[in-house]
Amino acid sequence: MFALEKPAGQPKPGRSGGLPKMASVGDFSVLSSSIPATKVELSVSCRNLLDRDTFSKSDPICVLYTQAIGNKEWREFGRTEVIDNTLNPDFVRKFIMDYFFEERENLRFDFYDVDSKSPNLSKHDFLGQMFCTLGEIVGSQGSRLEKSIVGIPGKKCGTVIVTAEELGCCRDSVLMQFCANKLDKKDFFGKSDPFLVFLRSNEDGSFTICHKTEVVKNTLNPVWQAFKISVRALCNGDYDRTIKVEVYDWDRDGSHDFIGEFTTSYRELSRGQSQFNVYEVINPKKKGKKKKYVNSGTVTLLSFLIETEVSFLDYIKGGTQINFTVAIDFTASNGNPSQPTSLHYMNPYQLNAYGMALKAVGEIIQDYDSDKMFPALGFGARLPPDGRVSHEFALNGNPQNPYCHGIDGVMEAYYRSLKSVQLYGPTNFAPVINHVARYAASVKDGSQYFVLLIVTDGVISDMAQTKESIVNASKLPMSIIIVGVGPAEFDAMEELDGDVVRISSRGKFAERDIVQFVPFRDYIDRSGNHVLSMARLAKDVLAEIPEQFLSYMRVRGIKPLPAPPPYTPPIHVLQTQI
Fold it and tell me: Which phi and psi angles does 27 have, rounded to 5°?
């Protein structure tokens, strides 16, 4: 998947881009270690393909392309096998892809009738193509998308069915416990204070740190506490990938003494407690110097238990809907919309900051909302005909039905509102938060989750009421994204985003962290490549949603519903004429 750089100045932990660095013990933090995405397996079937062969049926192949975010270039991702003589293929070869909720992955499926052994696709007959996003497949009912094949004018090209299945190994966690015997004594006045460091190997031969145990003081025969780690973090789902374990003697000044190391793999560890899981701890320097060197002690696996975690995709597959609501700041501090200096300026040639933020976030979230109808609200304006100030008005002018169709419908209603309302004030967030909270409070069974996007210039007037609204909303199935546009200081917004200090109101703390704030200016691409900078913005504001969603479900003890039964293609019975 296309790796996105994190913009400077963003405090959020995220997946690091580029090659993993060699791990060092001192600076390890569980949050900053890069955990690979979950993986999904795509299965492809077609029905009623075009028949391009004169004397028999087509021999189809499917070729999958992914699109680079920056330059929009399509790159071949992989090909299925060729199935001879059928217009209704169920391809056996699957496509395994990394899946990130917060990124938009555009896909193109091309179909060809293979006429020779040549790998060059131009030598074969084109049967049509289908465009979609990975989110569209995952977000469809039962994670099964059926779409018409297009691309040959005037011809019906048939349909394609793509099904997504999350790979099981990505959802497993293991609970492991280790002990050691007769480790080398490293401290002059006492015994060692040992701890273990686990590192997974990368494709380029380097290692990434993935777990560090606690220190057990003053012993050469420590028993460490059991710890839990995801299989993704431990070996990226590759059971035979090398896992290196280093043994250190802890020192207060951070210059921990290396005792020795050993290597293993997930497959070896999964044998559990046995003679295969007693490891000699080897110090290569000592081994090179001393002829009689045997080892620096042994480490033994005491227990190994696999637990399967429920994932965000389990809920989506079971039918949970993500409801997306937009709230836009129409206060006078944004500037007169007819002036180019205004944050609401309607430039005929490019989107303003409000439009860009709406589109970037909305285009990803809409894949998870089956009816694609989004309530769009405004706040801080005087409304016609009587000029009353409103802090939750429908952008489409219909308070009984504030829904807009798709993100394009939201954009249209936003532009229409700008022409009819008068920007005013003050900037009150609490009414729109309470508006969404009322809906969220009515469905707490896990069938729906609400995401509110507030786009604002950030000068908030009702801080106390907003904090109270957020603390109350933290008990509900909802998350709040705030995008701050313009040059203001956003200190108040940073306070609402409870990453450093959990937000509280009247002595009550928020049950969960549900607010994610980003300043739009951190994403303005100096080179003018708005596509890339908006992809980064969407990635950063949406990255926390799956974990916030899961934290609500866990606290409430809500399990995902079973997915609908898998699709079984109809069997075509050949009619024989008598």
Answer: -100, 20
